[in-house]
Amino acid sequence: MSKGFSHYWTKKQIKKQLKVVRGELAPTMVLKDVTYLNSFRRVWLKANIWIMHDRIVYIGDDMPDPSDETEVIEAEGKAAVPGYIEHHSHPFQLYNPLTLAEFAAVRGTTTMIGDNLPFFMHLPPEKGLELLDELQKSPACLLWSARYDAQTELANGDDTFSYANIRRWLDHPYVVQGGELTDWPKVLQGDAQLLHSMLETKDMRKPIEGHLPGAGEKTLTQMALLGVDGDHESMTAEDVFKRLNAGLNASLRYSSIRPDLPNLLRELHEQELSCYDSLMMTTDGSPPHFMQHGVMEHLISLAVEGGVPFIDAVHMASWNVARHFYMDDVTGVLAPGRLANINLLPSTEEPFPEDVLAKGKWVRRHGKACFPETKVDWESFGFKPLELNWELKEVDFHFSMPLGMKMENEVIMKPYQIAHDLTEEELPDDSDELFMVMLDRHGKWNVCTVIKGFADSIYGFASSFSTTGDIMLIGRSKQGMRAAFAELKRRKGGIVLLERDGSVSAAVDLPIGGMFSGLRMEDGLLAQEQNLREKLAEHGYRFGDPVYSLLFFSATHLPFVRITQKGIVDVKKKRVLFPALMR
């Protein structure tokens, strides 16, 4: 049995904590006369909270003997609630896990449960797991999911997602669940390895997160039999109730492409929902422009505005989550033995904290962020700046494929028949079609097609930000695409948009493996993303979130056709329509 996150303190540490309760050692901090949320009784109580380094050791009326070793915080008039938990994070949407964790923690979201997919796909297991340990040194609590599948077609998918690799991730104590399970049809069709990994996850007492948009009663029932515990894909109140009826916890989503939370709550209340114990909330990996409005504190506010009682809204981002992940003995509730992740609110009705403790350290104090500077040497773990030490060839611009991809919205693409002469250097100005080339980041293969509906006047565009980290070139002009690739190569990764005169009108720098930024949200990342969105809109991008469009061009958990490492894929039939070509 693998060691779980519940086993967080050593015997030596626990013995010292016991001495604090007995009065033989001084606590490191006391929150005096604070009104705290007692989740077990669902009431607000006044008490003193003793903390020993990163753990709550006592809550009650007593005060410890005076000691210079104890920081006493006069907290009368303030309301203490558990640090919030974002349980379904994709911490690579231009930002990186550490910059997102800092942004979230100073707003009260002190625990993030993140997607491990980029680590899984781009690092050897030993380096990826070492990185989890390094990130946990931050005041924020960074926990992880273990993917079973890549949500795309990989050239070496069976090797990457081998049973041995999945098991190594599941064994790690900071990996607290399996999933999200995007390739659930595969297990329904009898895939033995996938089922075995799922059953082992359950044996470890770790939940499994589904990815089940549009699933009906029978599908949800089968998922429950297979061990799936929760799902975040509800789009209607009926979807929520179907999941609850199948014994699954349901997460209500408020993201850049699915801002469903207010409407879901309205529909649920119209159908007289009164129990929130099996509901959670998530921002589902939204890009910076959407996250700037807040993390779980923002969702709690929206829930309260939508008629959810304040305590229930807090629990939907704390205790409900901790119970779902079998770690409420460590976090998600204010009680002895739990991590000192504590939000001090100005009142029992306002979720945005004035002060925040994360693992017993101040990350927000007197209304100001004070997250300690925390750095990770990304290169030492394998995320070096992208070195494209290969050149484009003439074959990379041979567009012989008759099938193109038509965008219906940010993430849905349908096939269509190409009518233009693709041997020309440029596509006509009066169409919304653009050349599109996907290239292996190591220069081994390419896929050439046409994309319709992405924009209508892009000269040259290049991106190393994608599901797989491969290179995407888009443009009306083949020469423009060549120039954009050269600029991407010079920058060693990122996203670049070129004008016809060769100038860079928008760029997002992604020096960490060519996939994510080293900038904090407020220190340039938000500005870079906003400029990219504005410039793409000027060139005809008519949807709301180009970051998700780039991410999901290859995502085979979405209909109908995708561009992948294997070629153009028919998602429903699991068939390669036009294969990738070796260069």
TrEMBL record:
<dbReference type="InterPro" id="IPR006680">
    <property type="entry name" value="Amidohydro-rel"/>
</dbReference>
<protein>
    <recommendedName>
        <fullName>adenine deaminase</fullName>
        <ecNumber>3.5.4.2</ecNumber>
    </recommendedName>
</protein>
<feature type="domain" description="Amidohydrolase-related">
    <location>
        <begin position="80"/>
        <end position="362"/>
    </location>
</feature>
<dbReference type="Pfam" id="PF01979">
    <property type="entry name" value="Amidohydro_1"/>
</dbReference>
<comment type="similarity">
    <text>Belongs to the metallo-dependent hydrolases superfamily. Adenine deaminase family.</text>
</comment>
<keyword id="KW-0378">Hydrolase</keyword>
<dbReference type="InterPro" id="IPR011059">
    <property type="entry name" value="Metal-dep_hydrolase_composite"/>
</dbReference>
<dbReference type="Pfam" id="PF13382">
    <property type="entry name" value="Adenine_deam_C"/>
</dbReference>
<feature type="domain" description="Adenine deaminase C-terminal">
    <location>
        <begin position="429"/>
        <end position="574"/>
    </location>
</feature>
<dbReference type="InterPro" id="IPR032466">
    <property type="entry name" value="Metal_Hydrolase"/>
</dbReference>
<dbReference type="InterPro" id="IPR026912">
    <property type="entry name" value="Adenine_deam_C"/>
</dbReference>
<dbReference type="GO" id="GO:0000034">
    <property type="term" value="F:adenine deaminase activity"/>
</dbReference>
